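Quick one: structure tokens for this chain, please?
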Amino acid sequence: MVLIDIYDAFVLTPNDISRVEAKAITVLIEEVEKRTGIKLPVVHQWEGEDRTIIIVGSEKSLEGLRIPYLNLLDELEKPGREGYRILVERPKNHPVIFIVGRDERGVLYGVGRFLRKIVWRKGSIKIDDKLKISSTPVYPLRGHQLGYRPKSNTYNAWSVEQFDQYIRELTIFGANAIEIVPPRTDDDPVSPLMKAPPLEIMEKLSQIIDSYGLDVWIWYPNIPELCSLAQSSQMKRL
């Protein structure tokens, strides 16, 4: 394996990408900058071959972008739903890197895999110059459960920002769904460690999860006293 330094790369992506693809670009740029101090610039059209190019997008969004070497992807097996292809090539002096999702979620998971393949340190971003990956998730549902409550280890002490980073890392490793456990489903409805009211955090969590394009739902147990509270509240509204 030969590692090449791509510290001078810019990210090439279409202008009209979906919000989930745009989120994937944000994840790529922010996570690289955190660890290397390098902020990769973003462009929306091919600007020549005088520096390293990282092309990011879904198969559909890249259709309208005039990019040389797209045919190089044909050497990799086409992935299925939520899959992606990553290819590092050196057609001339500078590397061309493709992170191409079969769909918008595939872009997110492709970016996640690329981040896990990078060898980085301050001022340096290196990647295998022969990297070739085509990957499709084995399981259609890859979920996780989050609960802002005292029982769940340290969750009740987390801030919104910490939850966001945790959800981001779940996504980087391939999660596509998160189930939220609502308030009042534990021994204690609140904790002195909580940074905000549980309902407020639940709302924020749903917004964060949706921003990554993941499925989100609430698990609500059939607890008699809670059902009575819900019915009472409904009757008052009526």
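DSSP finds six helices and twelve strands in the chain.
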